[in-house]
Amino acid sequence: MVRRSQTELAVLGALAVEPATGYGVREAIKNTLGHFWHESFGQIYPTLAELEDAGLVTRTAAGQFAITAEGRNRLADLLAEPPTPARPRNGLLLRVFFAAHMADPADLRQLLEQAREEAAAALSRYETLADEVALEANPEVPNWMATIRYGIRHARATLDWAEETLADHQLGPDPD
Amino acid sequence: MVRRSQTELAVLGALAVEPATGYGVREAIKNTLGHFWHESFGQIYPTLAELEDAGLVTRTAAGQFAITAEGRNRLADLLAEPPTPARPRNGLLLRVFFAAHMADPADLRQLLEQAREEAAAALSRYETLADEVALEANPEVPNWMATIRYGIRHARATLDWAEETLADHQLGPDPD
DNA sequence: CTTTGCATGTAACATGTTACATGATTCA
DNA sequence: TGAATCATGTAACATGTTACATGCAAAG
Fold this sequence. Notes:
- Two copies of one chain form a homodimer.
- Chain A is mostly helical.
- Helices cover 64% and strands 3% of the residues of chain A.
- The first copy, chain A, is built from seven helices and two strands, in the order H-H-H-E-E-H-H-H-H.
- A two-stranded antiparallel ribbon of chain A has the order 1-2.
- In chain A, strand 1 (57-59) and strand 2 form a beta hairpin.
- The longest helix of chain A is centred in the last third of the chain and has 29 residues, at 106-134.
- In chain A, 35% of the residues are buried.
- Residues 171-176 of chain A have low confidence and may be disordered.
- The interface between A and B is large, with 65 and 65 residues.
- Chain A binds a DNA duplex (28 and 28 nucleotides) through helix 2 and helix 3.
């Protein structure tokens, strides 16, 4: 039984798409799951070692890790589990909530403007990503697109909220 | 210099609103910041002890913790810092992304339905909360409302996404 | 009088990041 | 040949949760 079930899920999932080195698993996660998931090497290598011990992955002749039949079963089990509830920790909202205690009201404006810029940037990254993914020939594409659509909706929610809140505080949009 | 800057910010912020016991700080965070922030006792008590050592809070005669002038300066400094970027870890999207490897396609449907229910429940909690907060006589109310509006927009984004995705997979809404 | 809520704290554990050490390969 | 990228791993640290121990006060 391997702990770290969420990391385990991410690693097994990545290897279910295609075999990869530990480095490659991290690249895969960074490039394709990057907008909603993160793993560091310090998590990936120990997890791969444990998965190998448990017979859920093996090393191929080419020096890559590949998922085993047992690994696929384990992956299916993990996918059926409800997501572990993440405790909320939103640094942006924490600051907005206590904004009355800021030294300078401009601090709030800057915070909101930065949130707006980041959301706008995220939005255009998602649009590009959606175009790229749509071209791939893979039965998993609909699911991948669903995660991108989630990103788009939430980025737009943040963008609209930031603009609304800027207007609400009569700080107005950046005139430059 | 106290580490744990985000916990420090949450605790100082709570005490800037009004003095409280350690227990009360946790209640305040749970009740008012609950939808976007979380702290456990294991974080709060050591942080309060460090804040006291640093002269940022003191114990009142009534046995409560109160923020000092230095504490308010520190709070203003922390509020001016950009939010520490949270590494994304969305267990729902992780499962959706790898849904092709689920044992049973109904698992995806169940996942999405649960996300939809949770978002709907969150939405109605926010509506209630907004009504309550609107009645409070406190200059911070506009900022508090802003955080609730953020919650509403994001809950609605999740709700719409879940319904869209359920329809997309031709699984349809739950007929019961 | 006993249960619930208020209150404080710690120790063990789980999780996760960062910095470092090391070396092969590729490409300019 | 030198820089960048691929590749593996560990150790120290930071953060955060959970379970436990303890006791008081209020309410029923």
